[in-house]
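Supplementary Note 3. Input sequence used for the single-chain structure prediction.
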Amino acid sequence: MTPTSSLERVLTDAREFARDRNSDAVLFLGQPTDPIPRALIQDSDLPPWARVLWCYFRQLSDTPARAGTMSDYETIRKSLGIGSRGTVAAALHALRVTRWITLLPPQSTGAVKTPNVYLLHNMPLTYGQAMDLDPEYANHIAEAVASPNKSIRNLARRMLDGAMMSMAESENDIDRITTLVLPANAIERSWNSYQRSPVNVIEEAGDEKDYSHIPGDDQGLNLYPEILGLSPANAKLMEIKIRQVEPEYRQPYLDELAVRFIEGKGSSRAVKNPVGYLSWLVNEHRQGEIRLTGKGERLPVLLEERKVRQERERWSEHRKKLRDLGLELDGLNRLIDYGRTDESLLDQKRRLENEVRELREATHGAS
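The predicted structure, written as discrete structure tokens, is reproduced below.
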């Protein structure tokens, strides 16, 4: 049984557990002998109540792969002596933002909506892993970045920057989550995989302007996903980040990034992580360092040159294929001339002739 199928079986059991008890469920993905993770205690990004809440959840699901019943906010508040439900909600929010907890999207069967399943991790997931489990995670980050709670807002921005800077390497290996079925892999999930922000962390001043709610012409923003090689998840990160600057600067920064990527490709100046580079540009801008050089104005010319180059490459491929098809067709004709006229050879000849005709039409008669 593969790790992924084992994980699916465990998640199915958790959903059935929650459905049978008509209650949300908590599922711990870790090893039975795990103590409270040292990384959790030392995680300076987490507020104290978030660490306590993780420990509380841990006792609800103390055996890996076996779900426990999720308490409601009021029960949690009374059990932990927390002053308000809002504090519980903020602590849970912080755990989700930092990827210590993953909330699986609910499954609906007709009109019946299944209860939630919270996945509890003994190390924070990477951004890619979180997106594999919960495709709505990026939207959760976007909401947290614009949260009225200052601590949640700053925390989400640090996590956003860390995720963007990590995109130079693929971290979408969901098998690394399943240490419960492959304990030997636990060593791979080290503290180094936790994506802290290596860029300048901006502690928000009380009067700092927040541009994230100013729409500008966001519907018309071009992120250049094909040029930059962006996955939908990466494009979502860039979309969230670029909204932290004034609307009039959003497209110019994206244009400048695209130019730097095109011009640097294959050289020592190559932008290997365009998502992380944009994170750095925006953070510099928010500190008063406007990093626009005017390069973005050259983008239309570069895009036209790129289009012409791609067209030439396409035609070159067509001509090469025409050459190969011609050689194959000549060989068939010789066999037929030698008296081999079985139906399969004639069908093959007709197929090749059709391919040659279509390719010639596509290349406007190029031979």
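Residues 299 and 305 are 10 Å apart (CA to CA). DSSP finds 14 helices and six strands in the chain.
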